[in-house]
Amino acid sequence: MQQAAPTLAALDVRVLVITFEPAAAAADYVAETGCPWPVVSQESRALYGAYAMGRVKLRHLVGPSTWAAYWRELRQGVLPRRPAADTFQQGGDVLIDPAGIARFVHVGTGPGDRPTVERILRVRRAAFGARPDPGDESAP
Question: pLDDT tens-digit profile of 42-96?
């Protein structure tokens, strides 16, 4: 997603990363990944519950999509690290419009189940109207 930061900014998409890990672990994540967006630690997991992000099933946690995600990271030179957090907590992606309406909610079945950045951008364009963005060869 970080590679799409200029496109996201051009479309006025503001990214907020929410984690249930303690603030110190969130800070380590930012330092390790160079995450350019704000990271909020919410150990209560209230927002996870509000968007029906519960517990993953074991078959999804160790299933093909998880292995595919690890393989993609390995190909990019990123070694998977030992999970320190609750690996059974579902994650997801939520796109909220300026009026506060959730236009897109994706609840992942496991760590490898995430929408592509392209899908999120398509939803954004459909929900909020299209504006040409730099780097989009299909823009007029």
Answer: 999 999 999 999 998 887 777 777 777 778 878 888 776 666 678 888 999 999 8
DSSP conformation class of 122: H
For 126, phi and psi rounded to 5 degrees? -70, -40
Which two tokens mark 11?
A: 């479309």
Give the containing element (helix H, strand E) for 94: strand 92-96
Both tokens of 7, joined, read 């496109």
- CATH assignment of the domain containing 32: 3.40.30
φ, ψ (nearest 5 deg) of residue 74: -60, -40
Residue 138 in any domain: the answer is no
Burial class (CB in 10 A: 0-12, 13-18, 19+), 121: buried
Residue 135 lies in a domain: no
Number of domains the chain contains: 1
The answer to whether residue 139 sits within a structural domain is: no
Which secondary structure element, helix H or strand E, spans residue 66, and what is its range?
helix 64-75
CA distance 100 to 49: 17
Q: CA distances (Å), 119 to each of 19, 56, 65, 96, 115, in order? A: 22, 22, 17, 15, 6
